Amino acid sequence: MDADARSSKAARAATARQYQPYLEADWGFKNSWYPALFSFELKDNEIKGITIAGHEIALRRSKGRVYAIRDRCAHRGVRMSLRPTCLTDDTISCWYHGFTYNLSDGRLRTIVASPEDPLIGQLRLRTYPVAERAGIIFLFVGDEEYHPAPPLEADLPIHISDDPKPVAHLLDPEVYVRGIHRLGNSNWRLAVENGFDPGHLLIHWDNQIIAATDRNLGLGARPISDEAIKIIDEPDGPKGMMNMYNTRGYKFFGENREIGIKARGRKPYYARTSVFLPGLLLVEHWPAPAWAQYEWYVPTDDKHHEYWEVLVGHCAGEEARREADYLYEHFFEPLALKDFNDNDLFAREAMQSFYEHGGWNQENLCAFDDAAIVWRKIASRFNRGIQEPPFRRAAR
Ligand code: FES
Ligand SMILES: [Fe+2]
Question: What is each CA distance from 369 to 8, 14, 50, 186, 225, in whole angstroms?
C-alpha cells in the first residue's frame, strides 16, 4: 500500500469513528415507532404475522382494536400467525396444541387440551404498544421495559412552518393518505441514505415522471456551507435533518460539460428532503406541489427492509377525495411510487453485497456525501438504542 492509500484509509477510519453506533445498527434502532400494516390490511378478527427489526409479531384486530403480541408460542415455538386461530374475542390461540393467550397482557389463559395445567397463569408472551393513526397501524418495537413509549408524533416528521404553502402532515385532520409497501433486499441504512442523497439524480434523469412533466431536477447538489443542512432536534419530538435546497447552502449542478450531459426537463422544480429517526424520509412538494411523500425504511432483519411509500395531501371533502384518488391511481402510484422509486430500490439492492462484506470501511465518499455523514452522526447521537440481533436477545 502506498502512502496516499494509507492516509486515505486512515482518514476514512477517523470519520467512521464519529458515527460508530450507526455502523453497529445492522438490525435497526429499537424503542421506536414503525409502521406495520395499513389499516385496510387487517380486517376484524384477522391475524397477520410481521417482522420488524427481528421481532416476530402477530397482529390481531378484535372489535375494531388492534393488538400486537409476540408471534412465537411459548410451548414449542411455532409462529401462531401461520394458522390463525381465535376462539374468543380477547385471546389468541396457538393452532398446534391450543396454548391460549390474553391479547391485552399476553398471559397464558388456558391450554385447550390441558385446562388444569399448572403452567396456566405462569407464562406470558410479550405484547407491543400499538397506535393506529391516519390509516396506518404503528408498533412501538424494542425493549419491553422501555416504558412509557413516547408519543407517535416523536417519530414522525415535524410540522413544516417555513414554507408559505406547507405540505400536509400525516396527522392533520383533513388529510389524504395512500400508498404501498414492499420488500427491499438491502439493509435499511442503504435505503435511508438513498432517500435523501443529493448526488443520486442520475438514476432518475430519464424516468417517466420527468418526461411526462418536463421537470428539471438537476443532476445533483453539493452542500457548500453550514446553511445546507438544518439539524432537527425538537425537545421530546422528532430528531433528524433537512436538506435546505432553496438556500445558498447548496450548489446545484444541471450539467456536466466534461462528458456532455444535461439534466432533462425545462421546468425548474423545487422539492425538499428531510430525514428523521428511526429512518423516515419526508419529500415536500413531491410528486406534485402541495403533496408530501413519506418513506419508511423499516428494518426486517440485517439484510432486508420493508419499503413504505406513502403520499400525504390536503383533502377537504368528498370531491377533493375523488380527485385525489384519480391523481393517485393514474399519476402518483404508477409514475412516482413505482417507476421513479423502482430506480431507488434497484440502487439500494445493488449496494447490498458490497456493504454486507465490509463496504462501510471501504467506501470513498465524495463532496455531496457530507449529507450522509451528517445523518449518520445524528442517528448515532439521537437513537433510543441499537437493536440486538434476535438470537443474542433470546440468550439474555
Ligand atoms: S407449539 Fe403452540 S401450543 Fe404447542
Ligand atoms: Fe431517488
Answer: 16, 16, 33, 19, 14
pLDDT tens figures, 304-322: 999 999 999 999 999 999 9
Q: Does this chain's domain 32-130 share its CATH topology with 153-382?
A: no
Question: Can you tell me which atom of ligand 1 is nearest the CA of 74?
Answer: 2
Q: Pick from 96, 108, 123 the residue to mutate for probing ligand 1's pocket: most ligand atoms within 8 Å of its CB.
A: 96
SS3 352: helix
- Looking at residue 161, its pLDDT comes to 87
Point out the least confidently predicted range of 3-7, 212-216, 367-371: 3-7
Q: Is the CB of 76 under 6 A from ligand 1?
A: yes
Q: Which three cell numbers stand for residue 339?
A: 417507476
Handedness of CA 142, 143, 148, 150 (dihedral sign): negative
The full set of domain ranges for the chain reads: 32-130, 153-382
Q: Would the CB of 131 count as within 6 Å of ligand 1?
A: no
**Confidence at residue 20, expressed as pLDDT on a 0 to 100 scale:** 96
Chain position carrying cell 434523469 = 205
Query: What's the mean pLDDT in 5-16?
Result: 74
The whole-angstrom separation of Cα 19 and Cα 360 is 11
What was the pLDDT predicted at 10? 79
Is 138:132 a contact under the CB 8 Å cutoff?
Answer: yes
Determine which residue's CA is closest to atom 3 belonging to ligand 1.
Answer: 97
Helix (H) or strand (E) holding 177: strand 175-184
Q: What would be the CATH architecture of the domain defined by 32-130?
A: Single Sheet (2.20)
Q: Is 108 in the pocket of ligand 1 (CB under 6 A)?
A: no
Q: What is the pLDDT of residue 295?
A: 98
Name which CATH class applies to 153-382. alpha beta
pLDDT digits (tens, 9 = 90+) for 169-213: 999 999 999 999 999 999 999 999 999 999 999 999 999 999 999
